[in-house]
Amino acid sequence: MTPRCYILAVWAALCIISLLCSQGAPVSPTGAHLMLCQSHSRCGDRFYDPQQHCCYDDAVVPLSTSRKCGNCTFRICFEQCCPRSFRAQETFVVKVRGQACSFGPFPGDRVCSSVR
Questions:
Q1: Which sign, positive or negative, has the C-alpha torsion 66, 68, 74, 76?
Q2: pTM for this entry
């Protein structure tokens, strides 16, 4: 290499180093950005933050989502609607999610009548 090439190589290296150093220290994302250290769950082929969403029928839904269960409303991320009888005057029971509908009554269960 000629001296002119050395000067050009040193100048290019200094430019690259100054560009890299001028950006400052790396900053961690905040707010709604995905943090790699947070726990995330899967719902089908999608990831979600369990502190903000839940998986319901293979869909990611906000924790505040609710549905009707007879004349009651239940929060689908925390409760489930269970049919209690199959007569003309059908009734339902809202139970804690994960608790089998076939279990007998538990404290906190809500009995709901059908809406006609």
A1: negative
A2: 0.59
